[in-house]
Amino acid sequence: MADAQALREEGNQHFKDGNFDLALSCYTKALDLGLAKETEMSIIYKNRSACYLKLGQYETAIEEATKCLEITPNDPKALFRRCQAYEKMGKVQEAFKDAAVLMKVDPKNSAVHAIFKRLNPIVQGKIKEQTSTVSRVSQMFDMAFDPSVELAKRKQATNNLIVLAREEDGAQIMWRENVLTKLKTLLDDPEQELVLNGLRVLSCLSKGSKERSEAVAEEFGVPKILKYIGVKNEEVSAAAAHLVQTLITYITDLHKYKEAVKKYDEDRKKGEPARYPQIKLSESALKFVEQVFLLLINMIGNAKVSPTGRDNAIELIMKNVTWKDGVNWSKEFLNTEGIEQLLLVAGTLEQHKTLPITPKSKMHASVALSKIYDDLSTDQQRNTFKDKCSAYIKDLFGDDIMESKIEAIEAISTLLQGPFDVGNMILGTEGVVQIMFALANSENRLHQRVAVEAIVHSASKKDRCAGILKDAVPVLKKLYESSDDQIRVRSLVGLCKLGSFGGTDISVKPMQEGSTLNLAKSCRKYLTNPAKDVDLRKWATEGMAYLTLDADVKEELVNDVQALQSLFELATIPEANVTYAAVSVLVNITNSYDKQDIMPELVELAKFAKQHVPEEHPKDTFECVVERLHKIAKAGAIPALVALSGTESKNSKELIARVFLAFATDETHRGLIVQTGGVKALLSLYQSSTEVGQQLAAHALAKVGVTMDPHTAFPGQRIYEVVRPLVSLLHVDRSGLQNFEALMALTNLASVSDSVRTRIVKEKAVSLIDHYLFEEHEMIRRAAAECMCNLVMNEQVAEMYEGENDKVKLMVLLCSDEDEQLVKAAAGIIATLSPRPLICKKIIQVKPWFEIIQALAVNENRELQHRGCHILMNLMASDKEIAEKIVNSEMLEVLMAITKIEDPDRQLAKKCAEQALETAVEFELIKPRTET
Length: 932
Prior knowledge:
Layout: H1 2-16, H2 20-32, H3 38-54, H4 58-71, H5 76-88, H6 92-105, H7 110-144, H8 151-166, H9 168-176, H10 179-187, H11 192-206, H12 210-220, H13 222-227, H14 234-251, H15 254-269, H16 283-300, H17 307-320, H18 330-334, H19 338-346, H20 361-375, H21 379-398, H22 402-417, H23 420-427, H24 432-440, H25 445-458, H26 465-480, H27 485-499, H28 515-527, H29 534-547, H30 551-558, H31 561-571, H32 579-589, H33 600-608, H34 622-634, H35 637-644, H36 650-665, H37 670-675, H38 678-688, H39 691-707, H40 710-713, H41 718-721, H42 723-728, H43 736-750, H44 754-762, H45 765-772, H46 778-791, H47 795-802, H48 807-814, H49 820-833, H50 837-843, H51 849-857, H52 862-878, H53 880-887, H54 891-898, H55 907-922
């Protein structure tokens, strides 16, 4: 019990200090001990609610306050906190109810009277609105569910129900009117648009409510809902898939889990202690997701399911399969036929008509297989996965049917695009490569195409290029002479991979001089083909992704505007599945890939030891890269990046962030980034890219924020959204340049308004900025001081300087630094804070304060002199004893001398000195000056 009490008291202290995460941690540990009595638990729940309220996690604050109220009904503080959280979430009626109860329980609480007064007219308006909504719902019901009503009116009525269901008030009214029973009849209607609208209404009703989601699943039954995914109507299929995802999200509380993961990631980036959250499913939720999983698996290989329905089923698996992002279905694949079903799709050829598929189906299967394999946590599980894949392929090779062998090679090709290690392992099985080459050498064009695709995909990793591709060169060259463009372009990509074997190292030339440029020329021809064949252009882009490692190829491509624009256009076609390859081309052109810095001494040592030393191409110099950036920007690269940033691939997003950063590094491109929506795109990339991609996106935002007016660069809400990415760069693991530019950008933001400064404080940036005040690099230290100079205008930051710490002492000492810009920032901080008496007392506790402030007051720099005089003025006004010390020193003569300055540029300092002397007169420390 004593330990729980101690933890609670420690948490209380952290809360007082503004360290809400640490306070929350202490309260949670106290609960975890399991020793607290009910009354003690009630207090802890109440305190946790206060922490979540401060952290802006209002839903959780409500839950914690409710737990307290279950133990201690009508607890005033718990009611007040829940009321505040409800209001923050926009749940005014719930907030009003709590306020009404609280006024009875704690009538002297003036804060709740203000809330009651504020909410009363809003609630009255809501009641009127609800009365109107009830009438509208009743009217819509009469038309939507009556078969005798004209079809056009029924369609309009169901559309209106969708709009009503999106609003919580409308959803609740519809729920009370037993809408599920009525929707059951609608989903059986032969008119597909009515079915579509019915599914959309169900999605809106389910969103945000676990109770309603469970009721929908129970009322309609999971098999019936999933049946709609498999229909031919693409809109109905997509709506049903969306409904299933909504049900999964809210029945399992997946949305809360994802929020917890997001907070964990943020805490970890800030170096704060954090424990990875675990998703815990109730028995009913577990039963639901298991049923959904088994039905989805059955849909994948069911020939009666529509092609779009199959894709939607696989997408649902992709979204929910992992333990980090979903409901952990990966292990279930090892105990079912799920892997085999995905391999069936992976090996399906449209010509064989085994299953109806779309152009995206095999890629979906590839991504799903990759996600499952990567999510498996033990070697035993991965071996089971490999065994299932191997057994499936062997079974296809085992019969005498040629179609089976073709499908086996196609499945291997798909695996090589997903879990490469698995595909490569199967490729190493005796006889597989021989069959692949035999198919490539046949006269059957389908066999040739399947085989050459497998050859190309088998070399997706650089370390494999010297293996199978070299053996396949004669085959690829032969197929490159084919009259079939589909085969030619695939062979071309294989040759491109071989041609790029040396990467950016000019000294490695695996092919004859000029061959790489010839291959690139062929790729550009396919990119700009008059027929605009998407498949040909897709493969040509794959080839360019390899060839543009060569600087000669880069230079030719940036001068071919038609090819560039064709590349940008192709990359935005969703069906093309070419985003990664297209952005890889841009990464290569802009040299924004990771480059290893090698010390010159090591290069010389390697040469002496006769080891290979990579050589940079003369066309890859900084000047050449800058020129290429300007050319592709003129061709439309930046708007193309904005369009591409909506991709779901995190790896593609990282590449996009790399190219954005390359553009942002050159100040001349920053305006165009802002004009074309690049800031919004970068914020999106920061939210959902890889960890490296998030850093790159944040750095690009920092560069924009350093030189541009924040109002222009980050209009409206974006000025608040950009704070978090910038703060994420204030970390010891980030580079000095990232630290510096983030501080500079935050300095500009902090100059905008107090609400922006409050947001910076809320993101816990103050302690991070403090850290850089001790940085050895003078530019970073100066940037930190300048940022703090703007932040101290915020009340919360100013109060931090009044606390028991050495912040004021540090700033006073920095005022004597040799760096004039640093002194200016530090003096600005002291000048801003000096109207506070407590700050003034802290200033005079610094031993050399007198000499430091005097040096400022007589400084030749007029800004520093003004700040010094401003500090003296406030020191005099803060306390008579301090004023007396100043008057009894040589500082009095300094002030008098300053009042006689006639220089128009130093009038601000003069006014401060005059005010200081007037204060001395008021304290009767000196006599007023007599006019002569």
